[in-house]
Amino acid sequence: MKRLTILLGLLITGLSISAQELYVATEPASNMPKNVLALRISQEGGFQNGYQSRTIPELMYGLDKNLMVHASAYLSNFFQNNYKMEGWSTYAKYRFLSIDSTNRHFRGAVYAKYASSNNPINFQEINLEGNNSGWQTGVVFTQLLHKLALSASVNYNKALDNRGDQLFPSNLADESLGYTFSAGLLTYPKVYRDYKQTNINVYLEFLGKSNLGRNETLMDMAPAVQFIINSKLRIDVSQRFQLWGNMTRNGKNMYLIRLEYNLYNVF
What we know:
Helices cover 6% and strands 58% of the residues. It is mostly beta strands. The chain has a single domain (2-264), classed as Porin (Beta Barrel), CATH 2.40.160.40.
């Protein structure tokens, strides 16, 4: 009985009460519960140069309430006609601040990412999700206000040589600053009764980048809708739109569809 109570608490805390913090394009300062393993598959694509798409399988695990890790792989046809394995990445996030009260909380976290890619380097945008090898570090803060969650982050990105023997082109920036702002709203259910209820969340996210030392910037807007079923299955649908930008890139105005399934107390 005690274990059942703990499990229900994890389900409700992790994927219901704070469901509107499960942003689609960004990560919040909150973490997934301890000993929860998430299996995720994302499909993104667009029609910038004919139809191109990328598939991203991902594993996520909550080591404890303050630390979680990700491991991702990237497969796409962005740089050639056929689908191929193009790289991988690892990510870790540590929550260092928690201020909790009734129906609200404020969280702060630091995060870091390392990515490896075997694609050619020919775009001004530094993209660590398949395009570029490199590393990223940043900080994120998230405020939950009952059914509304607001989050903002800033990060530094450093691009490295791809393929081990491909030197980074001198005409491209190898450093950038990223900044995001996200809002999530729980729209259903109006009254929470139990963890089996389907949650429906809507999001609006803004994602910007500036290449350091160069007059190269961009800003995307990404509205999304999300369904959380039985506190285990998550379905995301999103579309990104470039509001402005003067960077060459191959990830412009892309859709994203994602499925995620959570396994509790796996270890």
